[in-house]
Write a structure and sequence with these properties.
The complex is a heterodimer of chains A (179) and B (566). By secondary structure, chain A is an alpha/beta fold. Chain A is 28% helix and 22% strand. Chain B has one domain: Cytochrome-c3 Hydrogenase, chain B (Orthogonal Bundle), CATH 1.10.645. In chain B, the strands form six sheets. A four-stranded antiparallel sheet of chain B has the order 3-2-1-16. Classes of the chains: A alpha/beta (179), B alpha+beta (566).
Chain lengths: 179, 566
């Protein structure tokens, strides 16, 4: 049995940074996965991420990225791109958690073989609990990429007959966000 | 002429800590601490149901999720004058202890240890001598020659490959690194072992909170854990037993490894008991309540001014009247509108970004003040308050630390020396030992209370239509955390969080008084200003945590302007 983690990363309080947790909740509501596949809304982990990825066969991460593309662009990153630059000196425990955690896991000898970051170029990180239009439009393509990766890894999933209840508790469109 | 050094890891878009220092004659002559991103998250809470607030505040920060959840429910309970059942107190306390032990271990080994330990000296160590040294210091079973050899081989392999990986950017060979190869290896092998124990501490949080990083079991008025000693789906005796085993393992690591390593570093870098002091006003709140009302606590709280331990004042409760009245936030040097310090309940968060200017506004952090003075918060504050008030458990481990450091050939530590970089590390290790002992105590309190037939975990909140204010505090791993809520018509009218790193990373105030990070860096000697290891040592000793939110990955890996000599 392969151990695979699908992780949504990002802050649900900072606009498009919430894309990771958002997609995670949709996947949880609408699909069932083979044993060994775990889904986690990890929020904004720092070095704790090391614990979450240790010993996995494969890691799939959904997160917002700053790559200069048009907002809503979906770009795939693999391990070599994610670990191109060695970690820098840290002032606080928050660093680009993903690349640092991968570097650390490589050193400890328990890094996942396969790593995919499904990155979505964000439009805004301003305080607020909903996604911009551009990033909202990327939700379906992101889900397709996650499922394609599972196919590639020969990991099974099924779409539920009836759509489950999506628990995106932070989203409240009736509230003025910047009030 | 002064050089300016900016330490600003700019590859990250999330808010983070930036340090600017001016250096004259190889010593820091001026210092500024700033945060580079506006959070403004508190506004999201306005208009929401106060019973849901903790779900949101738990997302303030990815490292400190649990603590913001806890302070939030406590703030609403304070506003509603709501007591919570003893079981709920003990379960919450065990979660807080598990989180704190995890955090203190991670802080020392993952964030700070390599400021003192030179990885590239490790290949020169003799594993047998290292093992003998380690076994003379501690009964820990993970100190064998083979364990040391395995740790050394890992470093040798990395060094031989020419790809230093996670160690590529350390200040190796820096003149301020002074441990023998054997001590470097000893500490490094514990750095590797620490991973397992930090994970175990987190498992305790996960088992009681049903999930990490975001616990699910809180509710205003108590916890949502069903207790049934015989049921698999509830908090059962089986589960409690698993928690006890995990805690016992973590306790052993803290007392036999972490505490000893900190004492060893302290013994070998004695000059760091005289560097990195700064603000000598200290603030801590009492925590780990022992009853429903929160009338007695296992961790002491109070405040000390100007380093005068004799003048210590205790807080009777976690939302003490003195505390409620004395806290305000100043924005003279922060990127916010406003002219005078405001109490958090009437606090405003209107941004006014003007760009970094050390003489004007330069940080997104507000300047919290206690009776108009900057305060240092964190384990050192709590340990000093405990020591000064004669708190038995604090004294026990403080004395143990003093004796241990001396037995390793270090200096005789006096209370005055604790106002320092090493003082912060020592206090954190002392506090970790206290928490370790208290973990076992609160586990027993919970089991005993359940055994007496009390299964209650929750008191229902009752709201009135009138406006009420509450403050919820928690003595978090980084120090005093307070959430301030105003509730009206069952909705949140205002919400402010005054977090530990705001106290410590505070910019100057309207009187020009520096915050703790800034003051602690003054006069720090720098052997090589272009490699400001000494600045990192002091900043890290506070356990900074600024980001509190946004973690988008920047794949470009832009060149990193860590240090600019201007």
């Amino acid at each position: 049995m392969k151990r695979i983690l699908i992780a949504g990363i990002g802050s649900v309080l900072l606009g498009d940074d919430g894309i990771g947790p958002y997609v995670l909740r949709l996947l949880q509501a609408n699909y069932v996965f083979d044993e060994g596949i775990e889904l986690e809304d990890l929020g904004t982990p720092a070095l704790d991420l090391i614990d979450h990825i240790a010993g996995l066969d494969a890691l799939i991460v959904v997160d917002a990225v700053e790559d200069g593309n048009v907002p809503g662009t979906v770009t795939l990153y693999r391990k070599p791109e994610l670990t191109r630059h060695a970690p820098t000196v840290r002032l606080d425990p928050h660093s680009p958690a993903l690349s640092d955690a991968l570097w650390a896991a490589e050193f400890f000898g328990n890094a996942p073989q396969e790593v995919l970051l499904v990155g979505v170029t964000a439009a805004s990180y301003d305080g607020g609990c909903s996604l911009s239009g551009a990033v909202q439009a990327a939700v379906e393509p992101v889900i397709r990429q996650v499922l394609r990766e599972l196919d590639r890894l020969d990991a099974g999933f099924l779409r539920r007959f009836e759509e489950g209840e999506t628990d995106i508790w932070w989203e409240d469109k009736t509230l003025a966000i910047a009030g | 002429m002064a050089n300016r050094i900016t330490i600003d890891p700019i590859t990250r878009i999330e808010g983070h800590l930036r340090i600017d220092v001016e250096v004259e004659n190889n010593a820091v002559s001026n210092a500024w601490a700033s945060c580079t991103m506006w959070r403004g998250i508190e506004k999201i809470l306005r208009g929401r149901d106060p019973r849901d607030a903790w779900m949101f505040t738990q997302r303030f920060c990815g490292v400190c999720t649990t603590v913001h959840a806890m302070a939030s429910v406590r703030s609403v309970e304070d506003a509603l004058k709501l007591e919570i059942p003893p079981n709920a107190q003990y379960i919450r306390n065990l979660i807080l202890i598990g989180h704190a032990l995890h955090d203190h271990i991670v802080h020392f080994y993952q964030l700070s240890a390599l400021d003192w330990v030179d990885v590239l000296q490790i290949p020169k160590a003799d594993p047998a001598k290292t093992s003998a040294l380690a076994e003379s210091l501690s009964p820990w079973t993970g100190n064998s020659r083979l364990t040391m050899k395995a740790a050394q081989d890992k470093v040798k392999a990395v060094a031989a490959s020419g790809q230093l990986g996670i160690f590529a950017n350390g200040y190796w060979g820096h003149p301020a690194m002074r441990l023998s190869p054997e001590v470097n290896l000893l500490a490094f092998s514990h750095y590797l072992q620490a991973l397992e124990y930090q994970r175990k501490a987190l498992q305790v949080v996960g088992m009681l909170g049903s999930k990490t990083p975001h616990i699910q079991n809180l509710t205003v008025g108590g916890v949502a854990n069903a207790i049934d000693l015989d049921s698999q789906s509830a908090l059962s005796m089986d589960k409690l037993e698993m928690i006890r085993v995990l805690l016992d393992d973590v306790v052993r690591f803290v007392q036999q490894v972490y505490f000893v390593d900190v004492c060893a570093v302290a013994a070998m870098y004695p000059e760091w008991f005289h560097i990195g002091g700064g603000v000598k006003n200290y603030l801590a709140v009492p925590d780990l309540p022992l009853d429903s009302r929160g009338s007695s606590y296992d961790l002491p709280g109070g405040y000390i001014r100007h380093g005068e331990l004799g003048g210590v004042r205790s807080f009777q409760t976690a939302s003490d009247t003195v505390f409620r009245q004395a806290v305000s936030e100043d924005v003279t040097h922060s990127y916010y509108q406003g002219t005078k310090p405001l109490q958090p309940w009437v606090g405003e968060t209107e941004p006014q970004f003007t760009g970094w200017d050390g003489s004007q506004k330069y940080s997104w952090v507000k300047a919290p003040r206690f009776d108009n003075e900057p305060m240092q918060v964190g384990p050192l504050a709590q340990v000093l308050v405990g020591f000064a008030t004669g708190h038995e458990l604090t004294k026990k481990y403080a004395v143990a630390a003093i004796e241990k450091v001396k037995s390793i050939g270090g200096p005789q530590i006096t209370p005055d020396m604790l106002h320092s970089t090493l003082g912060r590390h020592a206090a954190r290790a002392i506090r970790a030992c206290m928490l370790a002992e208290l973990a076992q105590k609160h586990w027993q309190l919970l089991v005993d209370n359940i055994s007496r037939g009390d299964l209650s975990v929750h008191n229902a909140p009752v709201f009135s239509s009138s406006e009420v204010e509450g403050v919820g505090t928690h003595e978090a791993p980084r120090g005093t955390l307070s959430h301030w809520v105003v509730v009206k018509d069952k909705k949140i009218k205002n919400y402010q969080a005054v977090v530990p790193s705001t106290w410590n990373a505070s910019p100057r105030d309207n009187a020009g008084a520096q915050g703790p990070y800034e003051a602690s860096l003054m006069r720090t000697p720098l052997a090589r200003p272009e490699e400001p290891l000494e600045v990192l040592r002091t900043v890290h000793s506070f356990d900074p945590c600024m980001a509190c939110a946004c973690h988008a990955f920047d794949p470009s890996g832009k060149p990193i302007a860590q240090v600019k000599v201007l």
